[in-house]
């Protein structure tokens, strides 16, 4: 008794309950806990929790997880069966899958494969649970791959929960931010009462749909329909649990019927969905189709994308075909028929507009080649769109397309019942050419694939349609077995045929010839059987044996044997299982009335059913005719559109012709365009018309018409232009020629053919080129002068594309003229001087019309260069665009001369400096001499005198030290210096003085600056001088001194910027001159010493200032 109770409890544990897969990221574990706290404990369910491993260990502490009452949590063990009211937690670095018998299988997962575990779980749920699969993902910006997509495709439910939205929310049926609301939603789903697919209410809802839209939903798989209907029941304004309530809602609200219809027909698709399947097609299927097309000498390739939804798959396959044709450089017309029963989806596909998110899987080169970006969307280019015809199409009713090389019908047949699947596949078989290819969805399990579909790729459900026999045994062995078999049955049956699945006769018994129309048998069996209805009997028998793997018997069939009518029994079955695709037909004569027993249990067929099948075949033929008619109508419609376009074009040309007629009449008049010398000459070289200007060409000013061209022209040699005129009239082409008359005048002559109803001839226009030649010479002289001048000239479009350069500019940038034309001027200058100031100047020129200034830069060799630059905008009103001419002059030599002149001026100031030195030193020396004399006279030490003398000595020492710095020898040893550290020390020294004067010092020192070679004490003196000058300049002003260090273009820059009274612009150039100072008690030697130290370190110092706007000191050191 105890064992029975235990077994009963175990059975109760394993009672069927919904299995819900949960994926959770480490950032959302609190949502998982809140979900389980809110889940109703009275509901039976099983949960499988897998962490999307990014960081950390398992989902959470199992002991700390708060569970619904009656639920338990446990780690997954390999092979255990799922029990109700249990939460299974997948171990770290492992993946779990659910099997058909509801057992859990564990496999190891690589630590770097982050989303594989969640993806594997969702894939197994989709494969096992189908439309009853449930997936929840507690995520924050993550997507779990194809597993989630498979659940959606199978009709399952996918839900996400997160505080923030992600780019993948559209993949889910519902998204929640509150875990308690999610728990209530799941409870409503699993609490829906079970509904039988034969429920009359479900049948009534399906009938409503069929009447509403005319689509045969009764042929759809009932469980999938029920799953979609239940989703709509949960999504209604008020959640509905009973199917009968939803039926009444449909009756009350027709809009809900529309929403249900839309959800039933909505398909999930994307570009290159199942990328591996597309790779198989790209590398194997499509090259094979192209090979067959070329081998058969065809110039057209036809493919059909059945169930194309919004068009992504149709465009994907079209791109693969076009790329293969482009790779082979073959000229094959591609026709893609993309169909779907959903008209709104077809309209969307026809527009070819897709979001950035939908283009995620698109290779970048194909995106640029086949799509055009407009705003946030991508639009299919005409080069791809022209190959595809989108049309609404019902696979069950409408005629199939025919003579196809390839059919894609992925994830469509799984929505139909098995019998309907067979019917659709039969249509595909009829539509495909020999060696045509068929691809179905990877999860579609279609029973009894027709006999003429050979499996090509099992994983991706790819098949080949072929008429080649499939039996593999040797032909000799087959013949031997056929002879043996006929001996075995010759006593029981009157005739025996052995055929293959292409209805080719492989062997025949002696008694069988009387049933055939001809004595020789070398072709298809049905072509020789009489009467005609026997062909239908055999065809239907073969189909039933092939598709249902069964034996077919016909009894009491009226046949003709040697012209005599009688009855016979027919049996069609497999010949021998060793020979795949080989069948046997056995015939036994019978009398009518004998053995009337019905043989339905053996697969017998009634003769009436044969006629019925014949009717079906005739209907198929009729559908084929309708299909051809439909294609013809489509082509006719397209032709009509072309005719309309041509009519409009013709109307345009008619207007042009009328205008030309008017122009011709005007040209006939001698007064037309008198400024041009124009002649009308016919084939006989008679001058029909001429303008007054042409009179200068003739022998006499009084010229009559109908005179010959050569007799009237005075300035040409006899044969000149004669052959050209004849060539223009005969070949109907235009000739332009430069000629020189006997008097040395130069002309350009244009000869154009002329035709009307009455005559044919040539129009000659003479343009005097003497003045133009002078202009050309002058222009050539000007161009030569510009090329050899010292000025650099470049002309570019407003966008910076170089159009014209002179030779001096080419020498300046060290590139050939032909290499520069068409290049971007900004990139040329950046490569030369590593500066981007040109773009700013360019914008100013385009905006204001011109820009002028001087530019300083260092070329690639490190030499300092100066340019005087002018930019001028040139407007072209005809082209509605502007060009810019840049004129520059290299003034480096001028700047160096100015610098040398400045140094010479400084040398000339040495005399002044000597005088100043004498003055500065003589004053303290005079003081010292006087006090010494006083102390000598007094013959005693006086401290007051000594203090004054010591201060004078200190003053002398300071002046001498400053001059020693100015005259320091270059042999001083340099050492690596950390500039940032020196600045910190100097700022610390002067900061107290700055605070007393209301000035703060702000540091912006770049980290990790390289060391420079220098003398630390001298650099400290420089920084002290600059900071003290800045503090003194801000006397009476509260503000900030900015100290900045940075690395730019491999140079270290130090910037000191105060907010003091500033320096007038006209006095900035005097800074650094001996004894020039802006301070009341200054000597000017401090700044002169600063400049000397900076230059001795290989650096530069620059001052920028304006009155009352502060001063900016910029020091630059080489980083190496």
Automatic annotation (TrEMBL):
Keywords: ATP-binding, Coiled coil, Kinase, Methyltransferase, Nucleotide-binding, Transferase, Two-component regulatory system. SUPFAM superfamilies: ATPase domain of HSP90 chaperone/DNA topoisomerase II/histidine kinase, Homodimeric domain of signal transducing histidine kinase, Methylesterase CheB, C-terminal domain, PYP-like sensor domain (PAS domain), S-adenosyl-L-methionine-dependent methyltransferases. Residues 851-903 form the PAC domain. Residues 190-457 form the CheR-type methyltransferase domain. GO terms for molecular function: ATP binding; phosphorelay response regulator activity; phosphorelay sensor kinase activity; protein-glutamate methylesterase activity; S-adenosylmethionine-dependent methyltransferase activity. CDD domains: HATPase, HisKA, PAS. This is histidine kinase. It comes from Bacillus altitudinis.
């Amino acid at each position: 008794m105890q064992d029975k109770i235990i077994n009963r409890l175990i059975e109760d544990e394993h009672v069927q309950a919904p299995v819900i897969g949960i994926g959770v990221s480490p950032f959302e574990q609190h949502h998982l806990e809140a979900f389980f706290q809110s889940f109703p404990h009275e509901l039976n369910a099983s949960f499988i929790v897998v962490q999307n491993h990014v960081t950390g260990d398992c989902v959470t502490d199992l002991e700390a997880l708060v569970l619904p009452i009656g639920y338990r949590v446990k780690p997954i063990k390999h092979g255990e069966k799922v029990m109700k009211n249990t939460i299974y937690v997948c171990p770290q670095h492992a993946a779990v899958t659910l099997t058909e018998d509801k057992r859990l299988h564990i496999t190891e997962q690589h630590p770097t494969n982050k989303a594989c575990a969640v993806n594997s779980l969702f894939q197994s749920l989709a494969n096992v649970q189908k439309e009853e699969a449930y997936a929840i993902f507690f995520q924050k910006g993550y997507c779990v791959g194809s597993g989630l997509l498979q659940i959606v495709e199978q009709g399952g439910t996918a839900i996400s929960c997160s505080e923030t939205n992600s780019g993948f929310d559209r993949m889910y049926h519902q998204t929640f931010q509150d875990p308690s609301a999610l728990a209530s939603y799941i409870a409503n789903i699993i609490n829906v009462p079970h509904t039988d697919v034969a429920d009359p209410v479900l049948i009534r809802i399906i009938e409503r749909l069929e009447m509403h839209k005319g689509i045969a939903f009764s042929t759809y798989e009932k469980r999938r329909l029920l799953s979609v209907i239940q989703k709509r029941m949960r999504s209604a304004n008020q959640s509905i649990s009973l199917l009968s309530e939803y039926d009444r809602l449909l009756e009350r609200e027709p809009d809900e019927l529309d929403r249900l219809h839309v959800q039933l027909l909505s398909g999930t698709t994307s570009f290159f969905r199942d990328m591996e399947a597309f790779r198989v097609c790209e590398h194997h299927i499509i090259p094979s189709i192209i090979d067959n097309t070329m081998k058969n000498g065809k110039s057209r390739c036809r493919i059909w994308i059945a169930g194309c939804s919004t068009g992504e798959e149709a465009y994907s396959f079209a791109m693969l075909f076009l790329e293969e044709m482009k790779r082979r450089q073959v000229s094959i017309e591609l026709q893609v028929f993309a169909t779907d029963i959903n008209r709104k989806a077809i309209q969307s596909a026809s527009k070819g507009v897709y979001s950035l998110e939908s283009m995620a899987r698109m290779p970048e080169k194909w995106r640029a080649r086949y799509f055009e970006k407009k705003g946030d969307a991508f639009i299919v280019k005409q080069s791809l769109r022209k190959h595809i015809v989108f049309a609404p199409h019902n696979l069950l009713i409408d005629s199939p397309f025919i003579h196809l090389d390839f059919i894609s019908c992925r994830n469509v047949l799984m929505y139909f019942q098995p019998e309907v699947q067979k019917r659709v596949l039969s249509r595909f078989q009829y539509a495909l050419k020999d060696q045509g290819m068929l691809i179905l969805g990877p999860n579609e399990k279609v029973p009894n694939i027709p006999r003429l579909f050979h499996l090509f790729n099992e994983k991706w459900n790819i098949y080949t349609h072929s008429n080649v026999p499939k039996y593999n045994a040797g032909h000799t062995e087959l013949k031997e077995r056929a002879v043996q078999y006929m001996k075995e049955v010759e006593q029981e049956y009157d005739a025996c045929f052995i055929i293959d699945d292409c209805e080719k006769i492989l062997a025949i018994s002696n008694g069988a010839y009387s049933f055939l129309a001809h004595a020789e048998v070398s072709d298809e069996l049905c072509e020789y059987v009489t009467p005609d209805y026997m062909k239908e009997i055999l065809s239907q028998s073969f189909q039933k044996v092939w598709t249902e793997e069964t034996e077919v018997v016909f009894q009491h069939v009226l046949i003709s044997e040697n012209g005599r009518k009688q009855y016979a029994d027919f049996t069609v079955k497999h010949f021998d299982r060793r020979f795949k695709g080989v069948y046997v037909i056995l015939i036994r004569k019978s009398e009518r009335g004998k053995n009337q027993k019905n043989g339905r249990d053996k697969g017998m067929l009634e003769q009436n059913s044969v006629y019925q099948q014949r009717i079906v075949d005739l209907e198929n033929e009729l559908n084929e005719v309708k299909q051809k008619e439909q294609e013809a109508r489509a082509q006719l419609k397209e032709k009509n559109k072309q005719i309309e376009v041509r009519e409009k074009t013709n109307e345009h040309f008619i207007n042009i012709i009328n205008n030309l007629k008017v122009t011709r009449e005007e040209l006939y008049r001698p007064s037309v365009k008198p400024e041009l010398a124009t002649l009308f000459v016919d084939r006989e070289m008679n001058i029909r018309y001429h303008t007054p200007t042409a009179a200068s060409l003739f022998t006499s000013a009084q010229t009559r018409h109908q005179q010959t061209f050569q007799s009237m022209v005075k300035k040409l040699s006899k044969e000149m232009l004669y052959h050209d005129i004849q060539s223009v009239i005969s070949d109907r082409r235009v000739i332009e020629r430069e000629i020189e008359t006997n008097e040395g005048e130069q002309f350009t002559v244009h000869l154009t053919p002329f035709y009307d109803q009455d005559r044919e001839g040539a129009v000659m226009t003479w343009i005097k080129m003497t003045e133009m030649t002078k202009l050309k010479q002058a222009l050539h002289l000007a161009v030569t002068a510009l090329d050899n001048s010292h000025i650099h000239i470049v002309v570019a479009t407003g966008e910076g594309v170089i159009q014209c350069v002179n030779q001096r500019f080419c020498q300046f940038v060290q590139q050939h003229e032909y290499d520069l034309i068409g290049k971007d001027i900004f990139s040329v200058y950046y490569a030369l001087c590593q500066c981007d100031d040109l773009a700013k100047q360019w914008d100013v020129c385009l905006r204001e019309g011109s820009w002028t200034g001087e530019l300083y830069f260092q070329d690639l060799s490190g030499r300092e260069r100066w340019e005087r630059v002018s930019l001028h905008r040139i407007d072209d009103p005809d082209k509605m665009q502007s060009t810019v001419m840049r004129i520059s002059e290299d003034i480096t030599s001028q700047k160096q001369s100015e610098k040398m002149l400045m140094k010479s001026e400084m040398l000339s100031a040495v005399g002044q400096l000597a005088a100043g030195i004498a003055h500065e030193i003589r004053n303290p020396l005079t003081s010292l001499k006087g006090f010494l004399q006083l102390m000598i006279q007094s013959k005693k030490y006086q401290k007051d005198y000594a203090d004054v003398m010591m201060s004078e000595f200190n003053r002398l020492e300071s002046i001498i030290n400053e001059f020693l710095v100015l005259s320091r020898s270059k042999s001083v040893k340099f050492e690596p210096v950390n500039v940032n550290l020196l600045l910190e020390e100097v700022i610390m020294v002067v900061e107290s003085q700055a605070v007393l004067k209301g000035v703060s010092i702000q540091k912006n020192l770049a980290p990790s600056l390289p060391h420079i070679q220098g003398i630390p004490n001298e650099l400290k003196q420089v920084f002290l001088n600059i900071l003290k000058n800045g503090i003194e300049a801000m006397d009476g002003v509260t503000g900030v001194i900015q100290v900045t260090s940075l690395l730019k273009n491999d140079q270290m820059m130090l910037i000191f910027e105060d907010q003091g009274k500033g320096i007038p612009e006209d006095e900035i150039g005097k800074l650094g001159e001996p004894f020039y100072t802006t301070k009341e008690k200054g000597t000017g030697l401090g700044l002169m010493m600063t400049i000397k130290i900076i230059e001795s370190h290989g650096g530069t110092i620059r001052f920028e200032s304006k009155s009352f706007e502060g001063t900016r000191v910029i020091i630059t050191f080489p980083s190496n």
